[in-house]
UniProtKB/TrEMBL annotation, chain A:
Keyword Ion transport: no
PANTHER family in the record: FUMARATE HYDRATASE-RELATED, L(+)-TARTRATE DEHYDRATASE SUBUNIT ALPHA-RELATED
A Pfam short name: Fumerase
GO molecular function term, any single one: lyase activity
Family to which the UniProt record says this protein belongs: Belongs to the class-I fumarase family.
Domain of life (superkingdom): Bacteria
Keywords: 4Fe-4S, Iron, Iron-sulfur, Lyase, Metal-binding
Domain Fe-S hydro-lyase tartrate dehydratase alpha-type catalytic: 9-282
InterPro entries: Class-I_Fumarase/Tartrate_DH, Fe-S_hydro-lyase_TtdA-typ_cat
Name listed for the protein in its UniProt record: L(+)-tartrate dehydratase alpha subunit
Automatic annotation (TrEMBL), chain B:
GO molecular function: hydro-lyase activity
Pfam families: Fumerase_C
Keyword vocabulary terms for this entry: Lyase
Origin species: Litoreibacter meonggei
InterPro entries attached to this UniProt entry: Fe-S_hydro-lyase_TtdB-typ_cat (IPR004647), Fe-S_hydroAse_TtdB_cat_sf (IPR036660)
Stored Gene3D superfamilies: Fe-S hydro-lyase, tartrate dehydratase beta-type, catalytic domain (3.20.130.10)
Superkingdom of this protein's organism: Bacteria
UniProt keyword annotation of Lyase present: yes
Span of domain Fe-S hydro-lyase tartrate dehydratase beta-type catalytic: 4-185
Protein name, UniProt field: L(+)-tartrate dehydratase beta subunit
Family: Belongs to the class-I fumarase family.
Length: 319, 221
């Protein structure tokens, strides 16, 4: 049984870490982009960003004033039990979100869509989002918070099999150029692409590809991994850099995730995580131990499974 | 070549403004206030009295809401400061400039050269863009003090009018000049020359989108 007070305390620490500490994998990716960038203005912007991440850590202040729309991804091992059950878990995550908004402080971004009511704590109807995943075996809970900006850089399109890879490339480029101009997408960024699923799951896949995979990670399907590398290179050859200035850094990494879709369709979504790509992760064990990390490790073989049954040997090994 | 760096007052002289060139990097000193949807609506549509003496106290309007809180004792804690996209506020700005005497409009992404020529140039105003759209911590360091927060009860913390005292606050990039030229449009034009090459071999989607033009005879196939 995982104690609920440890979950809430850990969640509050994660909110603080996500807002303030840029993940190392992303920082390395951005440094690599800065090393090859030769546009005058783009280079200046990237250097300023690198200085900004240092300033955030030194001062313990949020790296970006728009602290996005904080959300939670929760994953549990199959044997996990939480003190108070799922209702207590959700209450703890909502409390942590509200407390950290006031504590760090974060910007209270969340308002009612029509009445613009602001509770000044990033909590409201459906906010923060809490999504779940499960893994065979184990008694632990992974808490993952992502603070992603919420206005630009994301798009969806229904493509068809006849659109082919050329159609996918076209929509990818359209999305990067459309939101890259004037830097609305806050590039360079991790670009996530969702392919397939249904309209809603396609958006979910693309968002998770952007927010829950690290820079340098690859899809387990080698042909998709090759597409990821190709798309990263295409994105960086547009001639556009940070803030939409002339340059060559648009894409710090490109991650693609797929889901089975309607036989007639080929749904596609594109998501740009922010220049300040904010995520933080912790695993809490039943004995109260907490391990912090920055890799969500969300897309396991189990999450990408294709078969009716999950094969037994892997399950036994995990147990 | 690295860009030119300039320190500028938030109540700048016309000479200092006229001297700014596209791509210059600016650091600000003096009082600055935030204003976005909520403030414009309240001041211009609901005709509420602006709770500051403008432009005497400040001629710098920041399209921003900070990551900040008001403590129970009434003091302020301001962490990071980042701008929001300015194009959404174009419809209020001509009247706002007339009313407030704003000379520096600071935000994200700039506005169009048409906007600059039609109401920035006649008012002698300049647009400054934040950098990278994420240097919130660096800008936060430039906040010497939060002087006041107006209308937070009416508008909420994210839409309130924050008055901040800047000390060497930056970096910002000059995105419009005295002629109304636009830095982002200049860059867009250079990038556009190359776009046909990167698009080579791609093709438009089979299913089109309806409603993005005013031509109601459009079809999606």
């Amino acid at each position: 049984m995982i104690p609920i007070d440890i979950i809430q305390k850990t969640a509050e620490t994660l909110m603080d870490k996500a807002a303030i500490e840029i993940p190392q994998d992303y920082l390395d990716g951005l440094q690599a982009a800065a090393d090859v960038e030769d546009g005058d203005l783009s280079s200046f912007v990237l250097q300023a960003m690198l200085e900004n991440y240092e300033a955030a850590k030194e001062d313990r202040r949020a790296m970006c004033g728009d602290t996005g729309t904080p959300r939670w991804y929760v994953k549990m091992g199959n044997e996990t039990q939480i003190e108070g059950g799922p209702i207590a878990l959700e209450a703890a995550l909502r409390r942590a979100t509200a407390n950290a908004t006031n504590g760090v402080p974060l910007r209270p971004n969340r308002v009612h869509p029509l009445w613009r009511t602001d509770h000044d704590n990033n909590v409201g109807i459906g906010a923060p989002e809490i999504e779940y995943g499960y893994e065979p075996g184990g008694e632990w809970i992974d808490l993952i918070t992502v603070h992603k900006g919420g206005l630009f850089g994301t798009d969806y399109r229904m493509l068809f099999p006849s659109d082919g890879i050329e159609g996918i490339k076209r929509f990818y480029l359209d999305s990067l150029v459309a939101f890259g101009k004037r830097g609305l997408a806050c590039q360079p960024a991790i670009i996530g692409i969702g392919l397939g699923g249904c309209k809603d799951t396609c958006m979910v896949l693309g968002k998770r590809a952007a927010c829950l995979r690290t820079v340098g990670s690859e899809n387990s399907d080698p042909k998709i991994a090759a597409l990821e590398r190709e798309f990263k290179e295409i994105g960086n050859s547009i001639g556009m850099g940070a803030m939409g200035f002339v340059g060559k850094s648009m894409v710090v990494d490109c991650n693609i995730e797929v889901g089975y879709c309607h036989t007639g369709g080929m749904q596609m979504s594109v998501h740009a995580f922010c220049l300040s790509s904010r995520r933080a992760v912790a695993r809490v064990f039943a004995d109260g131990r907490v391990e912090y990390r920055t890799d969500p490790n969300w897309f396991t073989d189990y999450q990408r499974r294709e078969t009716v049954e999950w094969d037994a040997p892997a399950m036994e090994a995990a147990e | 070549m690295s860009p030119r760096k300039i320190r500028l007052s938030t109540t700048p002289t016309q000479g200092a403004l006229d001297d700014l060139q596209l791509g210059d990097i600016v650091y600000l000193d003096g009082l600055m206030y935030t204003a976005r949807e909520g403030v414009y609506k309240r001041a211009l549509e609901e005709k509420a009295n602006i709770p500051m003496e403008l432009p005497r106290d400040s001629a710098a309007n920041f399209h921003c809401s900070p990551a900040a809180r008001i403590n129970p004792d009434g003091s302020f804690e301001m962490g990071a400061v980042t701008a929001t996209a300015s194009f959404r506020f174009a419809k209020w700005l001509p009247e706002w400039m007339e009313k407030s005497g704003a000379k520096l409009i600071i935000g994200k992404g700039g506005m169009t050269s048409k906007d600059y020529k039609s109401f920035f140039v006649p008012n002698g105003a300049i647009y400054l863009s934040t950098v990278g759209y994420g240097t919130g911590a660096l800008l936060g360091r430039g906040v010497e003090k939060v002087e006041a927060v107006h209308w937070n009860e009416e508008l909420g913390l994210a839409q309130a009018m924050w008055v901040i005292k800047c000390n060497n606050m930056g970096p910002f990039i000059v995105a419009s000049d005295k002629n109304g030229d636009c830095l982002f449009e200049r860059e867009n034009a250079k990038i556009a020359e190359n776009l046909h090459r990167v698009y080579e071999g791609t093709r438009p989607a089979t299913l089109k989108r309806y409603g993005e033009t005013d031509d109601r005879s459009d079809e999606v196939i």
